[in-house]
Amino acid sequence: MFGEIFVEVNVVNKPKKQYVAMKGTKDGLTLHLDDTCSYDELLKELDEKLAINETDEQDGPFIAVRLHVGNRYLTHEQEERLRAIIRAKKNLVVDSIESNVMTKQEALEWKRKNEIVSVAKIVRSGQVLHVKGDLLLIGDVNPGGTVIASGNIFIMGALRGIAHAGYDGNRQAIIAASIMKPTQLRISDVMNRAPDYRTDEGNEMECAYIDENDQIVVDRLQLLTHLRPNLTRLERSF
Amino acid sequence: MGEAIVITSGKGGVGKTTTTANLGTALALLGKRVCLVDTDIGLRNLDVIMGLENRIIYDLVDVVEGRCAVQKALVKDKRFDDLLYLLPAAQTSDKSAVTPEQMKQLIDELKQDYDYVLIDCPAGIEQGYKNAVAGADQAIVVTTPDVSAVRDADRIIGLLEKEENIRPPRLIINRIRSHMVKNHDMLDIDEIVMHLSIDLLGIIADDDNVIKASNNGEPIVLDPNSKASLAYRNIARRLLGESVPLLSLEDEENKGLLAKIKKFFGVRS
Ligand SMILES: Nc1ncnc2c1ncn2[C@@H]1O[C@H](COP(=O)(O)OP(=O)(O)OP(=O)(O)O)[C@@H](O)[C@H]1O
Ligand SMILES: [Mg+2]
């Protein structure tokens, strides 16, 4: 790739296969870690290589390190030990650790979080509809009914009850409804009660989001194009 | 094999018992064999509205507890030739005296002998409600045009939709006062049907004659000249599968409302 300088830092003159390849870029250091050797071998080589590197740049500025571990799965503890080795070296900070693999459980969780769950029903008084991921409700939420999603909430009918988007902490989440007349809106930990006096006009095709003042505001749906460009997901990626 | 229809509402006092009495009577007028079952144990009054109170010997709890056979507890309405019967609720027990399983068994038994078994449900969503819906094949939700009654109807509809053996509930809006609707002091039919999104079976105006008739033990539907009577008769015909247009509440001046009602009915019929 352009703008990248390949720095060969290994000065140890051994004919063995190298487990750690380093690339310096203008954004910092990228380490490609072999995924076929044992974990312990990897740690050992990493430690050695970085030790050499360290002496070279004693007083330099902080360098961000990105780790690519290939097809190796790291447990939380293994990841921590990697981080510890890097942290122990002067000037180096871990920016990210990327692996091509994840456990089945993580994959399912990820899938659930990124899924749009579509439900065709009327959420009536006393009922609670709770989903992981985004909710696409084909129907209404009646007064006294509640919908909750870890992601965004899209309601094709009327929202007259309570909607809680981003319930496990996602402040970027939004709530959109064809008819927006909620009794209460919640996004993440921010709450917004419907005004005591509401006009009947202009509650169509609206969305709610958290603005820069940490307030939930309700506005035209079309604003989302600018406010939340991430909502476009023709192609899902990590 | 007959059909069991539960008449329910969530909120109290919206006209379940009045509806049960009048629909049952209307179905008998149409030649159907009907059995009314009062499940409001401890607060029975279907017998009073039907004018049958003084003939009660046994009641629902006696039947369920095996003190007498169902046939023996049924009170015959003499105005009809062997078409209309009432199984009264017990006045002295409470709702926990009966279980849903026992109710289902009882209703199944009655369905062998009658074309329609109408079950008058108590208010609320507890034991009494569970007993009343246990044996039902269909449900009618009664509401009045006020916010709290509609809210409770919504709650009940949510519960009814979870019952696998009951077909999607249908709605009766009772005690409509057209001048209040016109002044937007009451929810209009349009709003209510839209909110609850279930089929509208009929509408009944608020009419003092309904109260008078009930007090005399003569359901209003027996009076051929009253509007409320016609409304109940029409609902009975719709239950039989006929498509009958909705009545206008106030003859001429209410064209707008009528148009709306017709629109709704048109969509569904
Ligand atoms: N269409 C009507 N016009 C005028 N009054 C009515 C009408 N329908 C019912 N009522 C009156 O409303 C009162 C309550 O009716 P009813 O007893 O049928 O309600 P309910 O739903 O069975 O009540 P509960 O929940 O206590 O069992 C009665 O006094 C009845 O006469
Ligand atoms: Mg009653």
From TrEMBL, chain A:
Keywords: Cell cycle, Cell division, Septation
Record has Cell cycle as a keyword: yes
Domain Septum site-determining protein MinC N-terminal: 20-97
InterPro entries, alphabetized: CAP/MinC_C, MinC, MinC_C_sf, MinC_N_1, Septum_form_inhib_MinC_C
Domain Septum formation inhibitor MinC C-terminal: 119-218
Pfam family membership, one: MinC_N_1
Domain of life: Bacteria
BP GO annotations: cell morphogenesis; division septum assembly; regulation of cell septum assembly
NCBIfam families given in the database record: minC (TIGR01222), PRK00513.1-3 (NF001772)
Entry's family note: Belongs to the MinC family.
The protein's role, per its UniProt record: Cell division inhibitor that blocks the formation of polar Z ring septums. Rapidly oscillates between the poles of the cell to destabilize FtsZ filaments that have formed before they mature into polar Z rings. Prevents FtsZ polymerization.
HAMAP family xrefs: MinC
Complex and partners: Interacts with MinD and FtsZ.
Protein name: Probable septum site-determining protein MinC
Lineage per the UniProt record: Bacteria, Bacillati, Bacillota, Bacilli, Bacillales
TrEMBL record, chain B:
Pfam families xrefs: CbiA
GO molecular function: ATP binding; ATP hydrolysis activity
SUPFAM superfamilies the record matches: P-loop containing nucleoside triphosphate hydrolases
GO-annotated cellular components: cytoplasmic side of plasma membrane; cytosol
InterPro entries on file: CobQ/CobB/MinD/ParA_Nub-bd_dom (IPR002586), MinD (IPR010223), MinD_FleN (IPR025501), P-loop_NTPase (IPR027417), ParA/MinD_ATPase (IPR050625)
UniProt KW Electron transport keyword: no
UniProt-annotated binding residues for ATP: K11, G12, G13, V14, G15, K16, T17, T18
Biological process, per Gene Ontology: division septum assembly; negative regulation of cell division
Keywords: ATP-binding, Cell cycle, Cell division, Nucleotide-binding, Septation
Domain CobQ/CobB/MinD/ParA nucleotide binding stretches: 5-220
Record function comment: ATPase required for the correct placement of the division site. Cell division inhibitors MinC and MinD act in concert to form an inhibitor capable of blocking formation of the polar Z ring septums. Rapidly oscillates between the poles of the cell to destabilize FtsZ filaments that have formed before they mature into polar Z rings.
Family listed: Belongs to the ParA family. MinD subfamily.
Name the UniProt record assigns to this protein: Septum site-determining protein MinD
Biological source species: Thermolongibacillus altinsuensis
